[in-house]
Amino acid sequence: MGDGRFGSGFGAGIALAIGLVLASVIGGWAFVKGKRGDQTITVTGSARKRIRSDLVIWKAGVSYQAPVLADAYRSISENVPRVKAYLIGKGIPENQITISSISSQTLHARNDQGEENPGQITGYSLRQELEVRSNDVDKIAKIAREATELINQGILLESMTPEYHYTKLGEEKITMLAEAAKDAKVRAEKVAESTGSSIGNVRTARMGVLQITPADSNEVSDSGMNDTSSLEKDITAVVNVGFEIN
């Protein structure tokens, strides 16, 4: 599964926007400094939403080895354009296809212990990658699965796992954290009511990390998750809020 980890923040602009939204949600609940001995309750509010990726990034690599560098280069130069033509023929616009520079590796003979002999060159390995970035996630996912049929045409193609992204994530983070803050208040009210009490002012409020996981997954990370392996994902936001008990 492909995933990322969020750092200490999402960027100054996003962090400020989230702070302002949370302030508007819980500002009416009155922030106060706690007095020693006061009764408090701290609850965790959460919100979850199912999203569908709207951007796919897919890479495919073409590799060739040959004893002579020129032969390996010739194979790459002939077959990468064939792969590009195949992708265009499948309906991918040319401006969504990027071709990398060619990477090369010199191959050396090895002794019985598996150690390389720098003075004895046995050949060369060249590789070039094509990258597709598209909002048509379903079409690209299908092409990524089918592209290995090019192997039957003598093209040594490696189709890598597509990365699925959601471009409206910044907006969703703000909305989800606000919903999580509201959920925290509802939970606190229910706990207080069960003991014949009521909640008062807000003592503390802390944003948790966002978890963006494959749909229906229970996997979490202390630093947050940003899954890129799944077309459908769940966003889970968490906010911890401490209230006075009246």
Architecture of the largest domain, according to CATH?
Answer: 2-Layer Sandwich
Mean of residue pLDDT values:
86
Which fold name corresponds to the CATH topology of the largest domain?
Translation Initiation Factor IF3
Low-confidence stretches: 6-11, 30-37
The total of helices stands at: 4
Query: How many beta-strand elements?
Result: 12
Explained architecture:
With 246 residues, the chain is α+β, with helices and mostly antiparallel strands. The chain is 29% helix and 38% strand. Helix 1 (12-26) packs parallel to helix 4 (169-194).
Compact description:
29% of the residues lie in helices and 38% in strands.
